[in-house]
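Supplementary Note 2. Why include the ligand at all?

Several targets in our set were suspected to adopt different conformations when bound, so apo predictions alone were not considered sufficient. For every target with a known small-molecule partner we therefore ran a joint prediction. The input for thymidine-5'-diphosphate is given below.
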Amino acid sequence: MRFFEFPVRRTDIPEEGQLQFIEEERHVPFPIRRVYYSTGVRTGYVRGKHAHRALEQVLICLHGAVRVDMDSGVERESCILDNPALGLFVGPMLWHTMTWIHDGSVLLVLASDLYSEFDYIRDYDDFLRLVATRKDER
Ligand code: TYD
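The joint prediction is reproduced in token form.
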């Protein structure tokens, strides 16, 4: 799994909390063309359940904790995101699900392109077929 660590600025005043920042092509490897975030999601709910053909994304849990499961069609990997200074890279052709571990956890996503339904693969069997086709083409 590929993670990015973002700069954290904090002072010795605990009440001030901390500040994190992300610059495109510096802290994430692509120009950020879209930002979206999920709020109000209940514990145990699973979002995602799709792959993207070309989109690159970085997932950041701003508050709470979210488990991410990724499946390349060959191997599976999981992690728990609970650090707002850490981003998980989700590249193309990775079936992924996000499971809410705490009520109201906030997941922020930085995306390399605008929304396009054509970029989604929403059926798992279609996904596996596409993985196999792409492997044959190599
Ligand atoms: P989806 O990506 O399936 O959500 P999740 O992966 O979090 O379960 O998107 C849910 C709906 O929102 C779907 O109808 C497409 C729409 N949508 C947009 O219109 N623009 C966006 O940027 C995103 C991410 C989704």
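The first helix runs from residue 124 to 137. The CA atoms of residues 32 and 112 lie 5 Å apart. Comparable summaries for the other entries are listed in the accompanying table.
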